[in-house]
Amino acid sequence: MKKVERIISYTEYASDKELTPEEARLLREAEEATRGSYSPYSHFAVGAAVLLENGEIIRGSNQENAAYPVGLCAERVALFYASHTYPGVAVKAIAITAKSEIHSVKDPVKPCGSCRQVMAETEYRSGKKMKIILKGETGKVITFDGTDNLLPFSFSGEDL
After folding, report:
1. Burial (CB count within 10 angstroms: exposed 0-12, middle 13-18, buried 19+), residue 146
2. Structural domain count, the chain
């Protein structure tokens, strides 16, 4: 028997004012993307902004549906659109944020498992890690250098 431990590593900032100008801009784009959210059931609007290696920024927002769970998360909307529009162009960073009509979203919003897997596959396809920037409506921001700290045991094409 062999016991293995894994340490999860991320960086925490007191506010978005501590981010680089490029990261802060991407986070503002994600905040703007929440306006396109269709979330009449959860009242939880999520926005994502993807920065591609070619400098393009693609936004996405969550899209709910009365026939749950056929909606789609903001992260996947943005990543799939980026992959379709700019095939073969690596993702440099993704920023994700949320707001709610019901309560204040104080903690950084985290991607669901499906989105984490899509993010990992995006890295796998390009061979490059992406910076992940997470924020709620106010307060601290956390960043990850790559998806391995968000999804340590992702499924890859090599597993087939």
Report:
1. middle
2. 1
